[in-house]
Amino acid sequence: MTTTTLRLPAKTTRAQLMVGESATILKRFYLIQRELVLMQAGWMPNTAHWERKLLLPEFLWQDALVARELRQRVLELRYPERNIDVGQDDVLIRMVRAFRDAPDELDFVRGLRYALKPKLHEAYQRYLQIMDPLDDAPTTRILRQALSDIDEQYTRWDAVLDGAASERAQTLAQAMGDLLATTAAQSMPDCATQHPPFQIARYGARDPRFKQVRFYWPDALDRSFGAGSGLQLQVRQGVHHLNEVWAAEMAAACIFDLAEEADAEFLFDAARWCFDEIRHCRMGYTRLGEWGFEMGEMPLGSFQYDAGARCDALTRLGIIFFFESTYIHTKPERAKIFGEWGDRVSSHDMDFDWADEQIHTHYGTRWLKYFLELRNDTRRPVDFRIQAEAAVKAEQMSATEEDKWDVQFVFSEMMARATAWAADQL
Ligand SMILES: [Fe+2]
Ligand SMILES: [Fe+2]
Questions:
Q1: What is the number of the ligand closest to the CA of 325?
Q2: What residues have CB less than 8 Å from 286, skipping those under 6 apart?
Q3: Is pTM, for the whole model, over 0.85?
Q4: How far is the CA of 125 from the centre of ligand 2 (A)?
Q5: 67-81 pLDDT, tens per residue?
Q6: CATH, range 19-193
Q7: C-alpha to C-alpha distance for 35 and 248, rounded to whole angstroms
Q8: Centroid of ligand 2 to alpha carbon of 326 (angstroms)
Q9: How far is the CA of 44 from the centre of ligand 1 (A)?
Q10: What are the boundaries of each domain within the chain?
Q11: Which ligand is closest to the CA of 357, given by its number?
Q12: Euclidean distance between CA atoms 23 and 29, whole angstroms
């Protein structure tokens, strides 16, 4: 007598990826997302075009959030393993990194928008089609969010960008192969190594549509000038906020210079820091615009970012930390007095700025300590004060008579305009 082994059938196709396969693909996605953060951070100081400069920190922050979630998911799937090494994705990641080596900013963002992001978009969509929304449900949410971010990024890039990806960027995207394959692409296209490697700008690029000055307000050149009060303090705050673009650049430079040697969490904190600073910059830009200032009337300098040009990467982190922690105390007071003067928007901006700055002080302390320990350096975060002050002082001391005249001219012009508008309101 024969016996038949009884079995129930697998009725659906949802079991296409096992845990190991999912982890392999999601690790690849994480590594690519991480590269996206690094390349956008690198290009941020090099970018002059204003609207695109504003978008890079925001999008790199979104990409960092997706990277963080993907990393977490990979660790969950591979628990208790805690390391994520590049392994067989090495060639692929070097190929992704080659997107950095664009000849100019416009070519870079076109490559990002029209080649690299579409490549990822397609891969995320396909993963969602073949994955199991039951067993692998946490990944569904991560990738849906990533797709929604990319869709929004397309719309916002397209408002400030046109054209197409260069042939090189298209070749790179194609050579990346199938991102869902078990084995990643193993051969680099020739074009990946034909361009000189990308170099981050140590002097901040500025859009010529602004009133370009080295020092944007008298107290930026000489602190003894003071912040002033009333109308002067309102305009000054708008100008200072606008010029926080330097802090976004410095945070971007810290990501670019330091992320490779740091714990993964550094990338996520620094990306948020960079995004916050560009929001502070946007606060000033928006407020000045709402009052009636044209772009060409707004002074935009770069001396604080430029002050880091001759410093090492850690001192640059020290410079941003020092300025964050030194002037933070003025913010709640200003939020209060702007409100009392009926300038609710300046008050509101200042209030939220202050909330952000308190997180940044924590970031600064945490990561300076971390990198100092890593280097067996016995200094404390507070010890960067001397170098930070000296670097900025050197910039201020190098001011020419023309720089001094420019800043006084800008100040007089802006105050005359603001006085006339304020008088019209009476
Ligand atoms: Fe700020
Ligand atoms: Fe800050």
A1: 2
A2: none
A3: yes
A4: 36
A5: 999 999 999 999 888
A6: 1.20.1260
A7: 19
A8: 11
A9: 16
A10: 19-193, 211-424
A11: 2
A12: 10
